[in-house]
């Protein structure tokens, strides 16, 4: 599939600088994939049965393996499902996934997931005359509202609104608007449908199931017996073969669709035209053109002339959703580039040829694997680029950055786009408004970076360990003791024996008494205190498990059973302990919520129920409310 590039040299010059982009169209039955190597150059289209794969990540990995494409930085998925937030659970398939976790698993810098009808709508302005087929008269007006209908499994509706030099796609559930019969035959269909459904929407009579319903209603009128296994596909087959009853059902179906399309056109003022997608209309072929669709579309009394001027089109493009997700992804990446946050990427590209060969290797690493630069310490960056550590620093300064930390900040900002990663220095003379905003911005940025880079597989392991623990002890020295005490306050409510120690002598004495089933959660910003490491070594020799909340690549992270690493980009040492403490507290909250969810199916008199009562007795109403909600929610008693 290609929109056509004049010649190979022009195509090569126009290729995406950041590599090929993965496009996907995920339906209830099949998953379709393609690669876009340049604007409009879409190829390597492959189709995979969804039932053959346990999840969306696995089928995407299979496609990448089959095409041997190598590194893909950006991907976009159109999916036959509402998309609201990070978690997507398909309604017509058993796949359920986190967008962010999938992005991490596949190593993409960008992963967009949009509703398939939104993607189809965004494809409309780019369709050529060869990719659409007009039904009836009318002429579309440029830069006017465009309507979209999709009779398929359901009845999708969307609308495109022009806004300056771009389009805004609006999601809609217009297919669930109440069906209104136009004539006596449709009255009969309505009466038949009312016996089956408490609410008869246009989707009930104007999608795949509607074609079957109409046929059965007309068959009942004519006292014709219809087999239980009879389907909409059978209606289409019989109509194409010339069966009178099937032809009448198809004409009735098309007329109802024409009424609905006309309703959408006058409601939206869709002078840019009404487009029809989905597979049903395409399968009807010439029957649709001969049907009452267009006549019914214009049958709006005083507004007949208004509707006569609005064109209606059938979308004939083979994979129109690819065009739509391509447009959405391009706009997303363009917004990121034009925001100024990714100026560092453009700066690297502009000056790459002027760099020394060694510095050029660092530049290539930053362009091709930016998350590696953000996550790794300087020793690993130098090793991956095959240069010395001073060369990494020289490269950063050649870009106008103060050093590696400053470069990481700018790179992270350009990479994440919609995630505001920033750092502002507090200066003498700042007002409370100034330094207050800077402190808050720095903390928010650190939390967002933690969300971006936290290893959630290790989080799951830690939660499982804590949930099965016989006893939990929290160790922290100095500022970390505050976090340990907070953790103890949260976890004792789960009915697990817990205690927090901020003194090395007490830690050593208690650790020597631990054994299998006991867990130590060690909180340390530096992860290098030799005394703490010796204490933990003793406990592990006794059979205890150690969960570390610390920085990456520290002795503590390397020795612990499970390490939850809380790296963050900082410049001034004076602010490290402040932000690290916040991140450590956030990790504790994540672990506490995880354990609460694992344990949130209690019966009366269970540990958690007793904990709720203890929390109320102690006056901690907020904690009691949260725990009470968890216990009732998990047992199915929650109303919301």
TrEMBL record:
<dbReference type="InterPro" id="IPR000281">
    <property type="entry name" value="HTH_RpiR"/>
</dbReference>
<keyword id="KW-0804">Transcription</keyword>
<keyword id="KW-0805">Transcription regulation</keyword>
<dbReference type="GO" id="GO:0006096">
    <property type="term" value="P:glycolytic process"/>
</dbReference>
<dbReference type="Pfam" id="PF01380">
    <property type="entry name" value="SIS"/>
</dbReference>
<dbReference type="InterPro" id="IPR036388">
    <property type="entry name" value="WH-like_DNA-bd_sf"/>
</dbReference>
<feature type="transmembrane region" description="Helical">
    <location>
        <begin position="306"/>
        <end position="329"/>
    </location>
</feature>
<dbReference type="InterPro" id="IPR046348">
    <property type="entry name" value="SIS_dom_sf"/>
</dbReference>
<keyword id="KW-0547">Nucleotide-binding</keyword>
<feature type="binding site">
    <location>
        <begin position="24"/>
        <end position="29"/>
    </location>
    <ligand>
        <name>ATP</name>
    </ligand>
</feature>
<keyword id="KW-1133">Transmembrane helix</keyword>
<feature type="transmembrane region" description="Helical">
    <location>
        <begin position="260"/>
        <end position="285"/>
    </location>
</feature>
<keyword id="KW-0812">Transmembrane</keyword>
<keyword id="KW-0238">DNA-binding</keyword>
<keyword id="KW-0472">Membrane</keyword>
<dbReference type="InterPro" id="IPR035472">
    <property type="entry name" value="RpiR-like_SIS"/>
</dbReference>
<dbReference type="InterPro" id="IPR001347">
    <property type="entry name" value="SIS_dom"/>
</dbReference>
<feature type="domain" description="HTH rpiR-type">
    <location>
        <begin position="342"/>
        <end position="418"/>
    </location>
</feature>
<keyword id="KW-0963">Cytoplasm</keyword>
<dbReference type="GO" id="GO:0003677">
    <property type="term" value="F:DNA binding"/>
</dbReference>
<protein>
    <recommendedName>
        <fullName>Glucokinase</fullName>
        <ecNumber>2.7.1.2</ecNumber>
    </recommendedName>
</protein>
<comment type="similarity">
    <text>Belongs to the bacterial glucokinase family.</text>
</comment>
<dbReference type="GO" id="GO:0005829">
    <property type="term" value="C:cytosol"/>
</dbReference>
<dbReference type="Pfam" id="PF01418">
    <property type="entry name" value="HTH_6"/>
</dbReference>
<dbReference type="GO" id="GO:0016020">
    <property type="term" value="C:membrane"/>
</dbReference>
<dbReference type="InterPro" id="IPR009057">
    <property type="entry name" value="Homeodomain-like_sf"/>
</dbReference>
<keyword id="KW-0067">ATP-binding</keyword>
<comment type="similarity">
    <text>In the N-terminal section; belongs to the bacterial glucokinase family.</text>
</comment>
<dbReference type="Pfam" id="PF02685">
    <property type="entry name" value="Glucokinase"/>
</dbReference>
<dbReference type="InterPro" id="IPR050201">
    <property type="entry name" value="Bacterial_glucokinase"/>
</dbReference>
<keyword id="KW-0418">Kinase</keyword>
<dbReference type="GO" id="GO:0005536">
    <property type="term" value="F:D-glucose binding"/>
</dbReference>
<dbReference type="GO" id="GO:0003700">
    <property type="term" value="F:DNA-binding transcription factor activity"/>
</dbReference>
<keyword id="KW-0511">Multifunctional enzyme</keyword>
<dbReference type="GO" id="GO:0004340">
    <property type="term" value="F:glucokinase activity"/>
</dbReference>
<dbReference type="InterPro" id="IPR003836">
    <property type="entry name" value="Glucokinase"/>
</dbReference>
<feature type="domain" description="SIS">
    <location>
        <begin position="462"/>
        <end position="601"/>
    </location>
</feature>
<dbReference type="GO" id="GO:0005524">
    <property type="term" value="F:ATP binding"/>
</dbReference>
<dbReference type="InterPro" id="IPR043129">
    <property type="entry name" value="ATPase_NBD"/>
</dbReference>
<keyword id="KW-0324">Glycolysis</keyword>
<keyword id="KW-0808">Transferase</keyword>
């Amino acid at each position: 599939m290609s929109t056509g590039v004049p010649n190979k040299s022009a195509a090569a010059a126009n290729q995406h600088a950041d590599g090929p982009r993965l496009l996907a169209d995920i339906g209830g039955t099949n998953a379709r994939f393609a690669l876009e190597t340049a604007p409009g150059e879409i190829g390597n289209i492959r189709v995979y049965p969804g039932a053959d794969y346990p999840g969306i990540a696995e089928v995407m990995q299979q496609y990448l393996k089959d095409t041997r494409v190598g590194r893909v930085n950006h991907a976009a998925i159109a999916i036959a499902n509402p998309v609201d937030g990070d978690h997507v659970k398909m309604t017509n398939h058993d796949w359920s996934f986190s967008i962010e976790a999938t992005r991490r698993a596949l190593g993409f810098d960008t992963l967009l997931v949009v509703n398939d009808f939104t993607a189809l709508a965004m494809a409309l302005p780019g369709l050529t005359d060869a990719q659409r087929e007009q039904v009836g008269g009318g002429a579309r007006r440029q830069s006017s509202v465009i309507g979209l209908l999709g009779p398929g499994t359901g009845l999708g509706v969307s609308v495109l609104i022009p806004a300056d030099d771009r389009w805004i796609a609006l999601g809609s559930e217009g297919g669930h608007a109440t069906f209104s019969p136009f004539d006596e035959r449709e009255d009969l269909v309505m009466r038949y449908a009312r016996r089956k459904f408490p609410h008869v929407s246009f989707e009930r009579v104007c999608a795949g199931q509607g074609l079957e319903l109409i046929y059965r209603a007309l068959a009942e009128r004519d006292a014709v017996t219809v087999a239980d296994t009879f389907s909409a596909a059978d209606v289409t087959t019989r109509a194409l073969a010339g069966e009178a009853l099937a032809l009448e059902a198809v004409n009735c179906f098309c007329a109802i669709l024409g009424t609905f399309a006309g309703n959408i056109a006058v409601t939206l003022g869709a002078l840019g035209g009404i487009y029809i997608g989905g597979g049903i209309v395409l399968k009807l072929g010439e029957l649709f053109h001969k049907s009452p669709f267009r006549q019914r579309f214009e049958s709006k009394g005083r507004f007949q002339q208004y509707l006569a001027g609005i064109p209606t089109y059938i979308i004939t493009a083979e994979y129109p959703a690819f065009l739509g997700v391509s447009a959405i992804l391009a706009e997303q990446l363009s917004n990121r580039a034009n925001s100024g946050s990714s100026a560092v990427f453009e700066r690297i590209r502009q000056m790459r040829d002027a760099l020394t060969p060694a510095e050029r290797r660092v530049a290539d690493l930053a362009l091709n694997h930016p998350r590696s630069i953000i996550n790794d310490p300087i020793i690993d960056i130098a090793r991956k680029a095959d240069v010395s550590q001073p060369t990494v620093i020289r490269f950063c300064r050649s870009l106008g950055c103060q050093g590696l930390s400053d470069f990481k900040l700018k790179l992270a900002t350009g990479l994440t786009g919609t995630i505001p990663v920033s750092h502002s220095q507090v200066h003498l003379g700042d007002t409370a408004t100034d330094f207050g905003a800077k402190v808050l911005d720095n903390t928010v940025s650190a939390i967002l970076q933690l969300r971006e880079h936290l290893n959630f597989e290790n989080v799951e392991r830690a939660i499982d360990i804590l949930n099965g623990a016989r006893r939990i002890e929290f160790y922290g020295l100095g500022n970390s003791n505050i976090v340990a005490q907070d953790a103890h306050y949260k976890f004792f409510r789960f009915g697990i024996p817990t205690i927090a120690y901020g003194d090395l002598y007490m830690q050593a004495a208690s650790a020597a008494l631990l054994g299998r089933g006991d867990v130590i959660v060690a909180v340390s910003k530096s992860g290098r205190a030799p005394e703490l490491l010796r204490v933990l070594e003793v406990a592990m020799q006794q059979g205890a498990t150690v969960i570390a909340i610390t920085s990456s690549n520290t002795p503590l992270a390397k020795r612990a059973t499970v390490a939850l690493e809380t790296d963050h980009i900082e410049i001034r040492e004076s602010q490290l302990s402040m932000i690290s403490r916040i991140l450590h507290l956030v990790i504790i909250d994540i672990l506490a919520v995880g354990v609460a969810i694992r344990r949130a199916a209690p019966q009366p008199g269970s540990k958690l129920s007793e904990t709720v009562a203890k929390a109320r007795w102690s006056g901690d109403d907020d904690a009691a409310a949260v725990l009470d909600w968890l216990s009732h929610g998990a047992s199915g008693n929650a109303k919301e």
